[in-house]
């Protein structure tokens, strides 16, 4: 499993010792409501299962899940995952609420998308965001993702259907501003 560093973050394999922090952050309804497959409440046992599934997904070649750790404090701040399904990789991510608004999601997602394009040689990456979470849309737009399609999805924590907005990013558009100019610092793996 590769690990990466960014300016402020370490992206590494999740560990069983991360379960407490994962449970704390995903146990926050404001975080869980933005993830379709996360239940609420979310317990430490749930977190242990999530971490075990991350290792299983890697072993099967179906997913690369990264714990997002703050470089200075070494606190787990969230996770970012690339999952393979039907020949396409999908990016997903979440951060604990205290870490919202600092650009960590963009920083982590940028590094993992670069890994998808430069190492895995993926042509297209998909990602989705749920209604009520415009910050996630902004993260994806900063990386060059564009809208693909909208659909209704069951959101377990909400106990209801919500609009899900799927976006896609093609390799040649990664790191491009809306003007179409390439930002070289964005595309390095």
Going by CATH, the architecture would be 3-Layer(aba) Sandwich
> What is the count of DSSP helices, taking H or I runs of 4+ residues?
5
Low-confidence stretches: 179-187
Give me the Rg, rounded: 16 Å
Strand order of the largest sheet: 1-2-3-4-5-6-8-7
Structural class: alpha+beta
Order of helices and strands: EEHHHEEEHEHEE
CATH class annotation: Alpha Beta
Taken from the alpha-carbon principal axes, the silhouette is: globular
Share of helical residues = 25-40%
Mean pLDDT: 93
Largest sheet: 8 strands, mixed
What is the domain tally? Answer: 1
Note the beta-strand portion.
25-35%
CATH level 4 superfamily = Gcn5-related N-acetyltransferase (GNAT)
From the N-terminal CA to the C-terminal CA, the straight-line distance is: 15 Å
Q: What do these coordinates show?
A:
There is one protein chain. With 189 residues, this protein is α+β, with helices and mostly antiparallel strands. The protein has a single domain (4-186), classed as 3-Layer(aba) Sandwich (Aminopeptidase). It is 28% helix and 32% strand. The protein has 5 helices and 8 strands; from the N terminus they run ββαααβββαβαββ. An 8-stranded mixed beta sheet has the order 1-2-3-4-5-6-8-7, sandwiched between helices. A hairpin with a 3-residue loop joins strand 1 (4-5) and strand 2. Helix 1 (19-26) packs across helix 3 and helix 4 (104-118) crosses helix 5. It is globular, with a radius of gyration of 16 Å. The two termini are 15 Å apart. Residues 179-187 have low confidence and may be disordered.
């Amino acid at each position: 499993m590769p690990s990466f560093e960014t300016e402020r973050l370490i992206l590494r394999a999740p560990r069983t010792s991360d379960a407490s922090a994962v449970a704390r952050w995903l146990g926050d309804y404001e975080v869980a409501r933005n993830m379709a497959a996360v239940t609420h409440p979310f317990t430490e046992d749930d977190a242990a299962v999530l971490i075990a599934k991350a290792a299983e997904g890697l072993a099967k070649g179906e997913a690369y899940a990264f714990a997002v750790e703050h470089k200075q404090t070494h606190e787990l701040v969230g996770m970012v995952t690339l999952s393979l399904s039907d020949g396409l990789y999908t990016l997903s991510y979440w951060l604990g609420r205290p870490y919202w608004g600092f650009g960590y999601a963009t920083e982590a997602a940028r590094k993992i998308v670069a890994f998808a394009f430069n190492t895995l040689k993926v042509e297209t990456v998909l990602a989705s965001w749920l209604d009520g979470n415009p910050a996630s849309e902004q993260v994806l737009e900063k990386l060059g993702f564009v809208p693909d399609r909208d659909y209704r999805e069951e959101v377990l924590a909400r106990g209801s259907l919500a609009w899900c907005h799927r976006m896609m990013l093609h390799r040649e558009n990664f790191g491009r501003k809306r003007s179409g100019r390439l930002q070289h610092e964005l595309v390095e793996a």
